[in-house]
Amino acid sequence: MPFLIVRNDIAKMETDAVVNPTHPGVFALSGRESGTCGGAEAALLTAGGPGLTEARRSLGTLSVGDIRVTEGYDLPARYVFHTAGPVYRGGIFGEEKLLGSCYRAALLKADELRLSSVAFPLVSSGTFGYPKRRALDTAVREIGAFLKDHEMTVFLVVYDKEAYEISRRLRKDIKDFLTGSRTPERPANAPSVLPAEKDLLTETEEIFQAAFSDAAFPETQADAVKTPARRGEKSGRREKKAAQNSLPADSAPLPQQNFPETAFYQHAPSAAYPASSLRDFLDGRDESFSEMLLRKIDEKGMTDVECYKRANIDRKLFSKIRTNTDYRPKKATALAFAVALRLSLTETEELLRKAGFALSHASSFDLIIEYFIRAGKYDIYTINECLFEFDQPLLGA
Are strands 79-84 and 67-71 parallel, antiparallel or unpaired? Predict the structure, then answer.
């Protein structure tokens, strides 16, 4: 999964690399000996053992935004990326730009080392005093911009929910919907965000929407190399399907096939259903999940890359779905694609049926997804934020 927010101890993340938000000064003056070592750094150095502590000490002074790489030592992670985040001084000294450079430098270093996964804490949001909500916004913006052009699994690790407090009104609306006292209906021709709901959009939502907007997915040479057949397949998939399902205007309708209603229980199993009839019956099966997904991608005018990135799905999983007509996804995966494609509630239920699932009003997870679809809000990050708030599994692979 490209981008996942988890509540965990950063020192326990089993990724290729973890990011250590350290002090820019030399370790002898800023480490555990002086008591100014931040929470995330303290956890990493303690779990990493004496080897990691000494490796950090040997790095000396770091400039804000620098990245230094050491081994992970006793950590589950292979590498530790040490980065010096900015101390927050009211936001008027370029702290946001400096904080963004920490994320960019770490992500580019992970790409340079050809790593497949990296885990970040909320850099500078502890002892350096950076407001957690603003730190989260910067993290989302930089990670989203990077994943637009790169394939990597990125974790944002939060130790508690303090940084993830959704707006009071949004929380109340969802709780009301869960208890059946409010239904966020939206007219078919309404904008994606209703005027009355505009204040529900947080700054982070707008940042994430900008990172994954249509303009963020230009047609690039890299896309053409990765999916050489897709450019000609859009019309090809439609035309092939249309040819199978259409008849000339002057042709007679196909004869209706009648199956004996009593054959299943009047005869022994070996003779109950002749092989030829069973083959005919199977030939009339419905469109599969994979087939419907690819059809909807074409109908929405999206590329495969844009779709799976919007769905928070990695390329390898999408490739499996695309090449296996009978692929059966997990429910969260199917719903992630429904959100990425901005499907209506009816279309979402149809896509779920193709995978063998259904929305249930007995499930808080299903109701939260339905709430956002009815409201016409399809930002998967915002949906995952609310799922996180209500202790539900997140959308994606």
Answer: antiparallel
